[in-house]
Design goal:
By secondary structure, the chain is mainly α. The chain is built from 6 helices and no strands. The longest helix has 29 residues. The radius of gyration is 19 Å and the shape is globular. It is found in: Cell membrane.
């Protein structure tokens, strides 16, 4: 069965590529927060579906997981690029990357330990529930006026101040 994991990873990769290809068009039609929440819910549905003992279900789950994860990353990095003044963008993007990817590494380590102790048919629905609970957090607050908007409103170029 480990060889079949390669097939599932390929299907997940296809889901990610397709998600990336349509992300720009979707972000022009919906707010970043809605795009991120949809991605989280797509990921959560895929994780829950992965618990079923079926090859078609596992394949669909992989595609859903692959399509959902990039939505969150794309929405977050798009928000950073839109909201942060040019002069601070490099540092802010580096910080955002750390905040997005370090928790992933930590949860992979915790998950690897838990799978040795708890049946995957319990862990997967639990992980899906936790992910689903995170999605509404993206929708609870509206868009705030960012630093870039403040600079533009004052008639200055973003990232530059008048002397």
């Amino acid at each position: 069965m480990p060889a079949f994991a390669g097939v599932l990873h390929a299907v997940q990769g296809i889901g990610s590529v397709l998600s990336g290809l349509i992300a720009g068009a979707l972000l022009r039609r919906m707010p970043d927060r809605v795009f991120a929440a949809a991605g989280i819910l797509l990921f959560a549905g895929g994780v829950a579906l992965r618990a079923l003992p079926s090859v078609p279900a596992a394949s669909a789950a992989s595609a859903m997981i692959g399509a959902g994860l990039p939505c969150v990353l794309i929405a977050a990095m798009t928000a950073v690029q839109r909201e942060i003044p040019d002069a601070l963008l490099g540092r802010a993007a580096a910080t955002a990357n750390t905040l997005l990817f370090v928790p992933n590494a930590l949860t992979l380590a915790v998950g690897a330990g838990l799978v040795a102790l708890v049946d995957h048919r319990i862990l997967l629905p639990a992980a899906a529930a936790v992910a689903s609970a995170a999605a509404p957090g993206c929708l609870l607050t509206g868009r705030r006026v960012g630093a870039r908007d403040e600079v533009v409103r004052k008639g200055e170029r973003p990232g530059h101040r008048r002397s």
